[in-house]
Amino acid sequence: MTTRVGVVTFPGTLDDRDSLRAVRLAGAEPVSLWHRDKDLKQVDAVVLAGGFSYGDYLRAGAISRFSPVMETVIEQARAGMPVLGICNGFQILTESHLLPGAMLRNNHLHFICRDQKLRVENAETAWTADYEAGQEISVPLKNIDGRYVADERVLDELEAEGRVAFRYLDGNPNGSLRDIAGITNAEGNVVGLMPHPEHAVEPLIGTGRTDGLAFFTSVIKKLVTA
Amino acid sequence: MARVVVDVMLKPEILDPQGQAVQRALPRLGFDGIADVRQGKRFELEVEGPVDEDALARIHKMAETFLANTVIEDFVVRVES
């Protein structure tokens, strides 16, 4: 049976097509999910793609978090289903309290769009098992609300439990505390990050590298062996 | 109809680069003597019916779950006369 990975489209989502494509290139069946539909169409995992859902009104991710599809996503994520939030998807995951902390305006107030070097700190999550701990990858980064913040107690807890999944290398692009680019929940099934692995899955486009593909192959392997 | 105002501000320990940018622009415009600026959000709610304890409790809940993200923001609810 083919693994089915859903990608949610909210009004204002931009990267759903690229995420569906990445899922297909990794070898799974991509399934489009709609924000007003609670039905997850029997997918095995969900990607919350990047963009500006609901125009980032109120706060990035704040309105999407209460959409019908998120009711089911939150329930399933708590039950162990793999969920990946990329960029705006990461913001939705923090607003949903599936991941701790919050995202704020970049400290320099500029929109960033560039290739970004990252270190994979945790290669044991559902979305990172095909990497090696400490591996350095390069994927595009593009956002204005990318500054990760959480209080010191939460940051210490994340560090102690190995839940900082990705860290920025070669300079902090947005003022994120402790250079955090992405985190995981304690169970390792919910992962969020600001950079865009779905834009780095084919040698012909984007960075010219395929450093992002392993996110999607990781989750397929995880689901097949589960 | 009564108006209830919800003011939402970043917590004091959270860096506010937008407020800093405003503060830095002030001297250039001839407005001296402002040591710090913090930027926040103000919501004006036109409430149907009486603004009693029950209504305020609901607005408080609304602010806590939606208008503010209490991970990074504080909020104040007040009735405007």
Q: Could you characterize what this model shows?
A:
The complex is a heterodimer of chains A (226) and B (81). Chain A has 226 residues and is α/β, with parallel strands linked by helices. Chain A has one domain: 3-Layer(aba) Sandwich (Rossmann fold). Helix content of chain A is 23%, strand content 25%. Chain A has helices at 16-26, 68-78, 88-95, 152-160, 213-225, and strands spanning 4-9, 29-34, 45-48, 83-86, 102-104, 112-120, 136-143, 147-149, 164-168, 180-184, 190-193. In chain A, strands 2-1-3-4-11-10-9-6-7 form a nine-stranded mixed sheet, sandwiched between helices. A two-stranded antiparallel ribbon of chain A has the order 5-8. In chain A, helix 2 links the parallel strand 3 (45-48) and strand 4. In chain A, helix 1 (16-26) crosses helix 5 (213-225). With 81 residues, chain B is of the alpha+beta class. Chain B has one domain: Phosphoribosylformylglycinamidine synthase subunit PurS (Mth169, Chain: A). Helix content of chain B is 33%, strand content 31%. Chain B is built from two helices and three strands; from the N terminus they run E-H-E-H-E. Chain B has helices at 17-28, 53-67; strands at residues 2-10, 40-47, 73-80. Chain B has a three-stranded antiparallel sheet, with helices on one face. The model of chain B has no long low-confidence stretch (mean pLDDT 96). Chain A binds chain B through residues 58-59, 62, 66, 94-95, 100-102, 104-109, 147, 149-151, 175, and chain B through 10, 13-15, 17-18, 21, 66-67, 69, 71-72.
In short:
The complex is a heterodimer of chains A (226) and B (81). With 226 residues, chain A is of the alpha/beta class. Chain A has helices at residues 16-26, 68-78, 88-95, 152-160, 213-225; strands spanning 4-9, 29-34, 45-48, 83-86, 102-104, 112-120, 136-143, 147-149, 164-168, 180-184, 190-193.
